[in-house]
Specification:
This protein is mainly α. The protein is about 70% helix and about 10% strand. A 3-stranded mixed β-sheet has the order 3-4-5. The chain has a two-stranded antiparallel ribbon with strand order 1-2. Strands 6-7 form a two-stranded antiparallel sheet. Helix 3 (about 70-100) packs antiparallel against helix 11 (about 335-350) and helix 4 packs antiparallel against helix 5 (about 150-170).
Length: about 375
């Protein structure tokens, strides 16, 4: 090879290396600019990680280690585990995704995390359906053959996890990397981001419609069950006897009645019923509130996905404007459930509040001792 040819080859290699370096610099700059745009969403998710991580750790500690096993505590402990997984696995991944809207490199990592994300959310939703069935059986049917016991509640939770896996596995096919084009100084470069629906084929749309149908059917079932519970208990007036149960407003009043009616089972049944009508109390109010918050939090996420995949709205979400911020906030609306549940328990359940105070005092004493 002549000296002239060798010089041209070196020049070509240097020119190629320079182009690669230039593209890398452009992608890094665009990635950083986009991360600054999405900083409100990143801060929002980070706050949920802190609040939800601490709150659900306390919930699991209190309900799993400090109390005897009941169906209520089984369901609350399982929901706390799902929320904790959401806070410690899914949310950090979402921050990584928000930080790498142009430089997400691993398709396998993208697919696996989207599957985990869908599975956790669906498992929590199916568990809330099981909770509604438990409340209905316990308060309306009261047949020992079909009543939930702690052991049956655990089995129901395992079934919910199985169903969530069945309904989540298609995300492995439809999730993946999509091109995020970057144009600068007449130069076009392709970056990559992780999407739950990189494949927007008819199969992907059918899958999303199936998820919507499952959500709607679950919602209708929970509305029917909780409405039936309310209507059934509304007919039972204060002090009336039904199926061997006496319904009273509070525990102290129930204790007095129980002393004079030793052969009867006195129960509050999660409702206080008096002349003013029905007022929810106890575990029924907890689960009812958690269900309402779950529905409110999940609806924007589901509607946003439908609007995007049907090209009704959010068609172009990488324009570095307010629409991109709104889309990324709405698509992660379901995450607020994981942070809100501990607050619901603390507001409604007096013993849980007492356990929180007791636990905080123990931690303070340990720190003072150290």
């Amino acid at each position: 090879m002549s000296l002239h040819e060798d010089h041209n080859l070196n020049f070509t290699e240097r020119e190629s290396d320079s182009d690669i370096l230039s593209e890398e610099v452009i992608l890094n700059r665009k990635n950083d600019e986009n991360a600054m745009l999405l900083l409100p969403v990143i801060c929002y998710v980070s706050l949920l990680i802190i609040v939800g991580g601490i709150g659900n750790s306390i919930v699991f500690y209190v309900y799993k280690t400090k109390s005897k096993s009941t169906t209520k505590r089984v369901f609350i402990s399982v929901l706390a585990v799902f929320d904790l997984m959401n806070c410690l696995i899914v949310m950090p991944f979402e921050i990584y995704d928000l930080r790498n809207q142009y430089k997400f490199l691993s398709e396998e990592f993208c697919k696996s995390m989207r599957f985990v994300e869908f599975a956790i959310v669906l498992a929590a939703g199916f568990t809330l359906v099981a909770v509604a069935i438990d409340r209905y059986m316990n308060l309306c049917v009261r047949s020992s053959r079909i009543l939930f016991t702690p052991r049956r509640a655990k089995r129901a939770c395992f079934i919910c996890v199985g169903l969530s896996i069945v309904f989540s596995w298609p995300t492995v096919m439809f999730a993946g990397l999509v091109v995020s084009p970057v144009r600068e100084a007449n130069v076009s470069i392709n970056g990559f981001e992780c999407s739950s629906f990189s494949d927007e084929s008819i199969n992907a749309r059918i899958y999303l419609y199936i998820l919507n149908i499952v959500f709607i059917l679950s919602l209708v079932l929970m509305i029917i069950l909780y409405s039936t519970i309310g209507m059934t208990l509304y007919r039972r007036r204060k002090g009336s006897v039904h199926d061997g149960l006496i319904f009273m407003n509070d525990a102290s009043e129930s204790t007095k009645i129980q002393k004079s009616h030793s052969n009867m089972n006195v129960e509050r049944c999660g409702f206080a019923i008096g002349k003013m009508g029905v007022r929810m109390t106890g575990s029924t109010l907890i689960f009812y509130s958690v269900t309402i918050v779950f529905i409110i939090g999940f609806l924007p996420h589901l509607i946003t996905r439908v609007l995007k995949i049907t090209h009704t709205a959010f068609v172009e979400v990488n324009n570095r404007d307010g629409v991109e911020v709104a889309y990324n906030m709405l698509i992660r609306s379901y995450m607020i459930n994981s942070a809100a549940n501990p607050f619901i328990y603390s507001i409604i359940h007096k013993r849980f509040r007492q356990e929180i105070v007791r636990t905080c005092r123990k931690c303070a004493r340990l720190f003072r001792t150290d």
